Amino acid sequence: MKILDAHRTRSHLDFKSLVPALRAAFASAATVPARHVHAVSAGDDRGTVLIMPAWSEAGFLGIKTINIFPGNSALGLPGLHATYVLYDAHTGVPLAQLDGNEITAHRTAAASALGASFLAREDAARLLVLGTGRVARLLPAAHASVRSIREVRVWNHRPEGARALAAEWRQEGWDAQAVDDLGAAVSAADIVCCATLATAPLVRGDWLAPGSHLDLIGSFTPAMKEADAACFAGARVYVDTEEAPTKAGDLLDAIAAGALSPETIQGTLAQLCRGERRGRRSAGERTVFKAVGSALEDLAAATLVWQRER
């Protein structure tokens, strides 16, 4: 079994390759059982453990274990740590252990961009990122693989974190600035990407401009939410998987408020990738993509790394 560290895992996950790999995976046959979710407590510390398996007709089986501890930010640590093991689906033989943090971050950002490839306006150029974590840092590069992003703005509940990330992005060549006025920044953005662990809404629907695309990829439990119910009212809403309406606090709150119903959700990533549902239909409509993550995305990313390593 190969052991691939963070650097080697990351080196194979460029978005020009990963986004098409995810698109092909969602259009193909695969088995993705429901994730196992376990609450963990150790003294005063609280976390969540997810166990996420998937296997494909291409002959690969993968299992990710991911630990989410929101309190880590106060310790200067990432809130998420993960490991990933890839197996031969025909024999069960272990093939590789990959860095799960890199797999998770890159596939999450790639799924965000894949959703935008169907739902953001063709001329979308102004990207606003909420959050400064591992996934948030990748979003400009991910979205630039599907849209011509020219301007990047970032907001965080800790302003110093937003300023530091904007400075890093400027060094990479982006026109990037931190923002303090979140409402004004949302109103000016073509694409708003939320990649936080928030438990109360950050984005308000009355801030969103006509023709904008709202991308919600941070929350994945009923207690977590990044957008208020008004964000969903009057918008065409899509989800990454059929699990999302039962998992995401954003969606559950919107349904409870009558701003959304399960029947009005327009489709999943698989349906978009297979051409079974249409994406954006006009330049003026608002779109929302809500993702809770899928083990299929992990499997597609790990398979890409393995195939490039051979």
Notes on the protein architecture:
By secondary structure, this protein is of the alpha/beta class. Helices cover 33% and strands 25% of the residues. The chain is globular, with a radius of gyration of 18 Å.
Which structural class best describes the helix and strand composition? alpha/beta
The main β sheet shows up as: 8 strands, parallel
List the uncertain runs.
Answer: none
Q: Tell the overall outline.
A: globular
First-last Cα distance: 12 Å
Overall pLDDT score: 95
Alpha plus pi helix count = 10
Q: Helical content, roughly?
A: 25-40%
β-strand percent reads: 25-35%
Element-by-element helix/strand order? EHHEEEEEEHEHEHEHEEEHHEHEH
Q: What is the total tally of β strands?
A: 15
Radius of gyration: 18 Å
- Major sheet strand order: 10-9-8-11-12-15-13-14
Helix/strand layout:
Blueprint: E1 2-3, H1 6-11, H2 15-27, E2 30-31, E3 36-42, E4 45-56, E5 60-68, E6 80-88, E7 94-99, H3 100-119, E8 126-130, H4 134-144, E9 151-155, H5 159-171, E10 176-178, H6 182-188, E11 191-194, E12 213-216, E13 236-239, H7 244-247, H8 249-256, E14 267-268, H9 269-273, E15 287-290, H10 295-309
Parallel strand pairs: 1-7, 8-9, 8-11, 9-10, 11-12, 12-15, 13-14, 13-15
Antiparallel strand pairs: 2-4, 3-4, 4-5, 5-6, 6-7
